[in-house]
Amino acid sequence: MTSHETYDVETHHEFAIGIQDSGEMQIFHGEELLRAGATQQGHYLLPENLADGRYLMIITIQNEGSDYIEPAIAGLQVDGGVLTVVPP
What we know:
The protein has strands at about 10-20, 25-35, 55-65, 70-80, 80-85. The two termini are about 20 Å apart. About 0% of the residues lie in helices and about 55% in strands. The model has no long low-confidence stretch (mean pLDDT about 90).
């Protein structure tokens, strides 16, 4: 998440992850203050000890007071504890 604003922005985010093509997702919610001009990584939202395999991730973020929700979809390959972002 990157803020291009000149002021701090309160954000709400939802992170869903599941084994690709399984139809099941774990969903995590969070809120945080994104500082003006800052970039905040969201990797801390990943569940610990993911089993090897390919996962689908769906991330949405919404600024406080806004009706606009920005979604993103990504793939994640886990192999021996190594995580690699791949096409979904």
